[in-house]
Amino acid sequence: MAEQVADGPRRGRKPTPRTWVWVLVGVLLAGAAVTAVWWKPWQQSVRLPQSACWGTLGPDDYRVLAGRDGTATLRTDYTISGPYPGDNPNRECFLVWNDGRKAMLDVRIVSSPDASEVEAFGGRPATSVDFGADGRGWISSGDGPVGVYLYLTCDYRQVASKRETADPGFAIRAATNPALSAAPIGEVRQALVGITLKLAKGVARQMPCANSPRLVDRPPQL
Length: 222
Prior knowledge:
Number of domains: 2
Largest sheet: 8 strands, mixed
Distance between the termini: 82 Å
Radius of gyration: 28 Å
Helix content: 25-40%
């Protein structure tokens, strides 16, 4: 009889420290599950235009510039198809994040007599980027907005009534505010280099540039 009592369940046994550890783990896991159901991080979404900047860019090009959850709105002024300058010498394209005042992507294209203005980079420190024999480029250094400038040598068709001599190329600038992006700054900078190269190729094709500008096939790695 004593053996049966000894082998039976011990009703008055106190929880050991190890038992309390497993109880605490269970509580934490349950709390995390409840939080996940309430927050639903997987339902966060990014809504991007399917095409941007005169059809030269797609979502995969500018997705890195977007935040974790929101909508990018597109605004494009004028066209990059020749003859140039047409209605306005400045071509502009903006992707605005969540209807704010800060542009997720800010693109400006204007004719330029040489690369000096682009090379000056507004007085900001910059590093040169090799876009090819007909694409001299620079990317901003340091903190603040990230900008990429490219001077494209382009033999384009000029509007006769505007000027007697056409500028020999275009200054192409693409900029972004990295604070809007959920990606590391290195990925933002690399994405902007790829965007600028695609813009230059779009100008060369749509303007068009009779000299068939020599540009690299793939974005240079920073």
